[in-house]
Structure formats: C-alpha cells, structure tokens
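Exercise: predict the fold of this chain.
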Amino acid sequence: MSRINLLPEQIYNKIAAGEVVERPASVLKELLENSLDAHADKISVRIQKAGSDMIAVVDNGDGMDADDALLCFEAHATSKIKAESDLFAITTMGFRGEALPSIASVSRITLRTRQKDSPEGSEVVIQGGKMVSSRPAGCAPGTEIIVRDLFFNTPARKKFLRSAGTEEHHIAEMMTSLALAHPEISFELRIDGRNFMNSPGSADLIPRIRHLFGRDYADALLPLSGGLNGIEVSGYIARRSFTKTTRSEQRLFVNSRPVESQAIYRAVRDGCGPVLDKGRYQPCILFIRMDPAMVDVNVHPAKREVRFSREFEVAAAVRNAVAQALRESGESDLAPGTVYVPDPVRNPVSEPVPFELRPDSPEPELISPKPFSIVNEPTPEKPAGNQPEPDADDAYDMELILKSAFLDYTPLSQQTVLKRASELPGLEPEKPAEKETQEPDDNTESPAPAAQGNSLGLRIIGILNQTYIIAEKADGLILIDQHAAHERVLFEKILKGVDGTLSQRLLIPVTLELTRAEMVFVRKNGEALEKIGFEAEPFGANTIKLNAIPAVLSQDRSGQMFKDMLANLAESGNPGERANYEQIAMCACKAAVKANDQLSMAEAVSLLRQLSYCDLPFACPHGRPTILNISMKEIERRFGRR
C-alpha cells in the first residue's frame, strides 16, 4: 500500500498560510499591498482586539468585477505576472497569488468590491477556505476586505500569538513602513476605535515623518542623496547625537518596498564611521531605486528579505551617500573619499620584559563562592539587622568576609537610595565608624586611605585604570570591576522594588516624544512598565509624561533610558517576567558607573560593601564576572617562585 498521500486543498492552503500569515500584522501587510497595487490613493484600516477579532481594509483603488472577485481566492491566481520573464523584473508589491487563499483558509473573510465604471459591486463570503456566498452588492468604488476570527480553525497558531500590545505594535510598525514608502497616499489606522494614524497624502516626506515619529525625530534628520552605476540613493540619516539601541529605526526601501538587508545595514554603519558606541544605531530612512532585474524579492514568501545581483555596488552607493551627508553637516570625521572598514581584531603585542611567564601556568581563575579565607582575623560583632546567618563552620563565606570589613551594614531592602553629587546613583560615601576620643600621638603617622578595613581582613589598595578596584586579602588579591559590581548592586535594588516601593515620583514630570508604534505599545503595556518602576501616561498624539522612575535612576538620564528600554521591549515582543528582568538589567547597566569614571576611595569601599550584601554578588545581570580572584600561590607561580 502506498504511504504517500496527496494532501487535500484545505490542508495545503493552511500550510501555505503558515508561511504567509504569521500574525495579524502579516495579514494586514498582504491586504495593504493589494490596495497599493490597485492604485489606491486613500487607505483606511480598522483593527479590533489586536487583529484577532477583526482586520478591515478599505481602499479607493481599481476594484474588481464579479469574476475576479471569485478568482482571487484561488491558489496562485494573480493579475501581476503573466509569464516567467516577469519574475525577473517585478514592479508590483505582490505577485505570488498566495495571500488571499491562505488568509481565507484560517479566517472568516468578507470581500466587497466595485470598479469605478460598474453600476454595482460584488460580495464574496468565505469561512475556513469554503465558499459561503457570492452575490451582487452595493458599495463604493474600490475594495473592502474584512477578516474576522483569525486562526479560528487553527487554535495552535492562535495560542502562539503574543500579547495584544505586542501584536498592535507590529501592526503599527508595518503601517509606518508602508506610509513612509508611499507619502503620496493617505493612510488611516484605528485600533479599537482609537485613531492612531491619520496622515494625508503629500509629496513632501518630512510632514509624514513628523506625524509618525515626532518633531524631535524629524529635526534630527539630515538629507542625503547619491548614486552609483544606475543605483540611486536618497532619504535621511540621523545626526551622530541621535542614536537608538536597536536597528528597528533603520528603515530601508528598495523600489518603494520595505526590505531588510544585512549588506545595507553594514554599509550604513561603515558610512557613519568609527563614531558609534557598540550597540547604538543611527536611525535612517533610505530609498534605493534600481533596475528591478537587479533585485530578487522572491527569496521568502514574506518578501522582506531581498538579494542583489550587484550587492557590492549597492552597498558602496549607500555607504558613500551616508558618509557624504554626515561630512557636509560636520557630523563625520571621515575625509572625502574615505571608506571606513573596521580593523580586524588583533591581540596587542606587549613590550619585551626581562623575564618570561611560564607557558604552562594557568590563567587566573574566576572567583568562586569560596574565594578566600581569613586567618587569625577577629570577626567584629554583627550589626543588628535581618541579614542571613552564615554557616558557623564555613570559613570561606564570601558574604561573611566582605561584611566583616564594614560596620554600618543595612539590608538593601531597607536602604534609602542615595546619590552622590556627581550623579553616580546608588553610591554613597562610607561613614566612618565611631571611635573613642583620644589624643593623637605626634610621633604616630596617620594611616593611609588604602588601609581602610585592614585590621578586619580586607584592604583596598588602589584603583587600576579608573576601572578595577584592587583589594588585598590574606592569601592574594581580588580585582573588582566597578561597572559590573555597581550594575549588580543597582539591579538588585530595582528588583527588590518591583512592588513599587523603590519607585520615585517626579516633582516635574519628564515629557517624551515617541513614535506612533511606541505609543501603541505604551498604551497596552502600562502595567508591565509600572512593575519595573516607570509610570507613564499619554500626553498628546506622540507624547507621554513620565510621572515616576526607578529610584536608582537619575532624572536627567531617565528619558533616554526609557526610550532605549521601550525599543528593546517592543523588539523582544514579550513584556512578561523574563522581559522585565532584561529591562531591569538594562536600566542598571545604563545607570551604573562606567569604566574610567573616577571613584574616591570612600566610594570604592561603599561599593564593595553594597556588593557583599547582594544575593548574587559574583556576576553582573548579563553574566559577566564582577570579581576576579588571584591567589598568592598563583602570583608566586607567575614569578617563578613555585
């Protein structure tokens, strides 16, 4: 008996739907592309329940006659290509003929359409891929498609949709991209009855950018233009001071089609030159026009990824246009004609030394939960508090050893978050312990600042390169990364305040301009934002007010930090517990002291004390070690004494 079966039409349509219809935003994308190909100049979209209940698209395009209204739901039926040669010069948004039958197979869909010169229109109703009715209907010229109950017959697909806020964010992002690609077309978007986009058509792109992203965003853009061998590049690049934490604001359009291309992303970064911090991206809106035969859009059913037959020339055209725009505005240090190519990573060659380290010597080991011991050192009386009791027989307990070096311990959950004058949040100078008054001996030298805590077994002896705190212990040295350590301290302070107890209300709220897509996300995820200390409320079409921020953050940096966090949350698409953890880690990282920030000895002592009271002091929230342990045995081995 044959084991190979020919799949029924209903099944293979659902398989095709899995490639084309990933989420409500992909359904909307296919419908909008049909409207654009039908030469519509006005498109209206209505969304209910993040698209799972309803997606409705109305346009004033060419419309269809009764026969085409039925034929468009057949697999591989399209008006956009007629011969094989058409695949190598695609000028329309769609061409596969898969979208409508795929959408109809997983939803309840109603189509109403009429051509301008026709006296009446047609209505077609399909449920789960099966025809329900087809009849004449009265309607305006153009096409209206209503998709209801998306994935009603594939509950497994519906279960894997993200939160309503995330799905609506993807819808708004997709609408934003198409609105930028076609500024001459009027777009309207309403979500659950609320107007999120109402942008009339105009040949000038700047008013649309201002409408979608806000005035600050538009004012930060520099115009660019260029070309190479028939490849034309135009658009805008942001100033050097205006950067984002994700690449989502780098928008690329090839022949008016929103696309993604790693080659172009690299070209943009190379054109910006070696000025961007790692993990920062300059927003851009780039339009690339070329012969359609030079670009392959038939790579993936979603048509987002494209390939170029002359990729090097496309990248060179983009890189030169970006570099020229920045150079002419004084934003680039690259000389004319310079192409920035990152240097390959090489190991630095050190200067010759009088002796050589043993080749078989192991590298210094990372600190472990039992990093060192204190021999014959008295343990001071513990202060009152609810800190955990250490094991009596554990002489290697990190928490006990570090706590013993400082007398003014207060559990983190009860500490007031303080700031030093130079805006390093979470660090406060160490208060000296009270001592009995006694006359100083003129012949006695005052102890050096590095001797703090020496009698208690741990002595900070310096700070290396304004980055690493060096402390001496009984059997070696420990190095503390001041940024990683402070990041861990702030992270646990915020984490212990997720119930709101460590959120500080602002006397004067901070106002921020957001994109329309970000506004959609904020409205739907206010509760998730409050859990990590931010309280935001809408204050206009593109503006919000920050009424409260995590207490460990300084107000002057809270606005940019909130925007960065919002971009990361929206891109991850999951404002749940794991995302909260990641965003708290990001807030802590941004607020922590950095490498080369100068700390006083008192601040270094305070930081080490606070680190010792953390639940997980050995690594920052991103997993990098905070402490490196170098034993005396290892030091002696390196010097050839063992």
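Check your answer against the key: The chain has 18 helices and 22 strands.
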